[in-house]
Specification:
By secondary structure, the chain is α/β, with parallel strands linked by helices. 38% of the residues lie in helices and 15% in strands. β4, α6 and β5 form a beta-alpha-beta unit. The protein is globular, with a radius of gyration of 21 Å.
Length: 386
């Protein structure tokens, strides 16, 4: 595969050559735990599927190519990938984290990792000076999301990369919301990119997975060793399903972005909605940064309802095309209630400090016809005043 092939071409071909044994066009599911060796110490690159599996390898090569890195590692879930990156740290290390992030990450950083004497400082990462001021002598890592979950704040990743370089620390970016189709943090100075491939990369709400992509061989080797030692891998069927999703990522993301933009514009005009959070809106505080840093504005729209909690509950229970779920990033539209769902593990004061209220609703806009989605939201919003 030529290095200058476009995203769409690489998504379909990198790591996915026809099977040498049979000529199968699609990468087979190598449903095996172990591989027969030719002799002691002589094998074809595969020994035991916890360490490496051909189906998983194909997925990892594709993801690395799409993110612009040399090494990809897939995990059993997004949280397994995040924890996998955490295994690079040692007792006494310190991490600076954006204060608006996925609730599962917050839970890991505040309840699990401190037990291993890894400490975290949460800052408003939309202000680069706060990141720099929070760095301590034992800081080893900066952890960022952009856009953030669920408030869709934009963080200047190039500035974060500069800060990381000046202080000799690693910059990790959770790129789940943007996907490699819209944003490539490694090009902006990140050292590690993580994904919940459960979301847009898998794209069909049928497989749990995670990934990390790096360009540094030493870091890749450490991650690989730690993953093999702890076992947080996906099975071959999960890898195969995720790889199937990779093939259509570009097509789906274009539709997600177009539909989300229309819905954000529609919601701005609704009297039941007090505020719409979407980087594609010119009034969004991160709009200019998103236009510069990303190649599209994403498929998630977050809104605050004027009627508060009761209106949010009514809206979540009245939609027909938006399924009430914990997830996002599927071809089907989904509606979520961050206060009790994605960020239920965060204390109320933490949620409020990030702008998450009991009237906040998150929409993962699917690829259905946008007129149907707007009509669905219109009829559901009318019921919030009932």
């Amino acid at each position: 595969m030529a290095d200058d092939a476009r995203f769409e071409t690489r998504a379909i071909h990198v790591g996915q050559a026809p099977d040498e044994a049979t000529g199968a066009t699609i990468v087979p599911v190598y449903q095996t735990t172990t591989f027969t060796q030719q002799a002691i110490g002589k094998h074809r690159g595969f020994e035991y599927s916890r360490g490496a599996n051909p189906t998983r390898q194909a997925l990892e090569q594709a993801l690395a190519s799409l993110e612009g890195g040399r090494f990809g590692l897939s995990y059993g879930s997004g949280m397994a990938a995040i924890h996998g990156v955490m295994t690079l740290l040692r007792a006494g290390d310190h991490v600076v984290v954006c204060d608006d992030l996925y609730g599962g990450s917050y839970r890991l950083f505040t309840t699990i990792m401190p037990g291993f004497d890894v400490r975290f400082s949460f800052v408003d990462a939309t202000r680069p000076e706060e990141i720099e001021n929070a760095i301590q002598p034992n800081t080893k890592m900066l952890w960022m999301e952009s856009p953030t979950n669920p408030m869709l704040r934009l963080i200047d990743l190039a500035s974060c990369g500069d800060i990381a370089k000046r202080h000799g620390v690693q910059l990790v970016v959770d790129n789940t919301f943007a996907t490699p189709y819209l944003q490539n943090p490694l090009e902006l100075g990140a050292h590690i990119v993580v994904h919940s491939t459960t979301k847009y990369i898998g794209g069909h709400s049928d497989v749990i997975g995670g990934a990390a992509v790096v360009d540094d061989e030493e870091t890749a080797n450490r991650l690989q060793f730690n993953r093999n030692a702890t076992g947080g891998i996906p099975g071959p069927w999960d890898a195969w399903l995720t790889l199937r999703g990779v093939k259509t990522l570009s097509v789906r993301m274009r539709e997600h972005c177009a539909n989300a933009t229309r819905i954000a514009e529609f919601l701005v005009e609704r009297p039941e909605v007090s505020r719409v959070h979407y980087p594609g809106l010119p009034g969004h505080p991160g709009h200019a940064l998103a236009a510069n840093q990303m190649r599209g504005f994403g498929g998630v729209v977050t809104l605050d309802l004027a009627g508060g909690a009761s209106a949010a509950h009514a809206l979540c229970g009245a939609t027909q095309h938006f399924s009430l779920t914990e997830g996002l990033g599927g071809v089907e539209s989904q509606i979520g209630y961050p206060w009790l769902m994605s960020h239920g593990a965060s204390p109320p004061e933490e949620k409020l400090s990030k702008g998450i209220t009991e009237g906040t609703v998150r929409l993962s806009v699917g690829i259905e016809h946008v007129d149907d989605l707007c009509a669905d939201l219109a009829q559901a919003l009318e019921r919030t005043d009932a």
